[in-house]
Write a structure and sequence with these properties.
The chain is of the alpha/beta class. It contains ten helices and 13 strands. Strands 3, 4, 5, 6, 11, 12 and 13 form a seven-stranded mixed sheet that branches. A two-stranded antiparallel sheet has the order 1-2. Strands 7-10 form a two-stranded parallel sheet. A hairpin with a 2-residue loop joins strand 8 (211-215) and strand 9 (218-222). Helix 1 (12-24) packs across helix 2 and helix 1 (12-24) packs across helix 3. The radius of gyration is 24 Å and the shape is globular. The relative contact order is 0.14.
């Protein structure tokens, strides 16, 4: 006799696999997320499609996409599974010990700047928490992509998100190698960059970042040109060290090379502080015990940095 708790569609684990594949658009990536083998993922999806009597994915050797039926199932499952996850998290929270997996989407710079300094201590103090950090140059939809939270510049966080300030200010720096500046001269104002080789940054959307400068309330935006365009800011620093041209990056990425003289600042009085970094999450979702512990650790770290900055002044 068939259990009353299991319908024709199968058990909840099959739908968890479906959600992971739908989010990742890859059996291999979904397998890594769920700690299963790709063959187990493939078997689960095939079994679910057979039980439902409908194809959920169109698969080729190069790509995977949801069918119309798959899209409809995904739209109904996401909020339902989210509610189940919230219920489980509430139970975990009552145990008093932070636990569970916390998925964070952030730029590589944000991970290096605010998460890297506390990772070892945080994981040592919270052994039942697993952090899944995804470095992403896009401004991802953290809800649609299955993340618990994101970390971005404060100005980029949507107003319907709960934002927690984790770094007060971020400063950008225009940097170049001494040999490049000796050969090409130093730009004095932002418009001088039109006469220089610049190392440009391309967002994953394809758009090229337009450099923004400010001094005494005057804002200058420059569409720079140059021989090299990258999607990775640390590589931009390396390219500047190699003398390829001038780069414009968050200054913490170039701090070591600036200290040892491999790089020099230019247009320093035109490089303003930008609004700081925020950890953000959707307000309608329950904050898990693991995410709450991470927020508390980041807030303590920010307070420590602020106290150090105040003491240095």
């Amino acid at each position: 006799m068939k259990s009353t708790h299991q319908s024709k569609g199968g058990d909840l684990s099959a739908y968890s696999v479906f959600l992971a594949v739908a989010n990742q658009r890859s059996f291999r990536a979904a397998a890594a997320e769920l700690d299963l083998t790709p063959s187990a993922i493939s078997h689960s999806i095939k079994s679910l499609e057979q039980r439902l009597g409908i194809r959920l994915f169109n698969r080729t050797t190069r790509s995977m996409a949801l069918t119309d039926a798959g899209e409809r199932l995904l739209a109904r499952l996401r909020p339902a599974m989210g509610a189940i996850e919230d219920a489980v998290r509430e139970i975990e929270e009552r145990r008093g010990t932070p636990s569970g997996t916390v998925r964070i989407n952030a730029s590589e710079g944000a991970i290096r700047l605010v998460l890297k300094p506390l990772l070892a201590r945080f994981l040592r103090e919270h052994p039942q928490v697993r952090l899944d950090l995804v470095s992403d140059g896009r401004l991802s939809d953290i809800v649609a992509d299955g993340f618990d939270a994101g970390i971005r510049l404060a100005e980029a966080v949507a107003q319907d998100m709960v934002a927690v300030n984790v770094l007060d200010r971020v400063r950008f720096a225009a940097i170049a190698a001494p040999a490049y500046l000796a050969a090409r001269g130093r730009p004095r104002v932002p418009q001088d960059l039109h006469g220089h080789d610049c190392i440009r940054f391309r967002f994953e959307s394809g758009a090229i970042y337009r450099w923004e400068f400010e001094r005494r309330g005057i804002l200058e935006r420059v569409n720079v040109d140059g021989p090299l365009t990258l999607t990775d800011q640390p590589l931009m620093v390396d390219a500047a060290i190699d003398g390829i041209g001038i780069a414009f990056v968050p200054d913490h990425l170039a701090a070591e090379a600036l200290r040892d003289g491999r790089l020099q600042r230019v247009l320093e009085d035109w490089c303003p502080d930008s609004p700081g970094l925020c950890l953000y999450y959707p307000g309608h979702r329950h904050v898990s015990s693991g995410l709450r512990a991470l927020i508390d650790a980041l807030s303590e770290q920010r307070q420590h940095w602020s106290a150090q900055a105040a003491a240095a002044r």
